[in-house]
Amino acid sequence: MTRTEIITRLRTLSTEMIEVGAAMDYYAGLSDGPMSKHAAELVDAGLIVAEWAKEIEKESP
Fold first, then answer.
1. Residue 32: predicted pLDDT
2. With 0-12 CB in 10 A as exposed, 13-18 as middle and 19+ as buried, what is 13?
3. DSSP H/E element including 33
4. Collapsed DSSP state (helix, strand, coil) of residue 61
5. Among 6, 42, 57, 61, which is least packed by CB within 10 angstroms?
């Protein structure tokens, strides 16, 4: 796997994590239950993965 492929896969992973987290939050509604809490964690983790992709992209090849 190349560096570019890793960056692409990280971005795809990040997008999926954020979208699934948003869907979970929507499904959970206004509840403060486990699904809502896990949704927020998943979105936060997706944002971290997006940052990893940016940092790796900035590195020299």
1. 86
2. middle
3. none
4. coil
5. 61
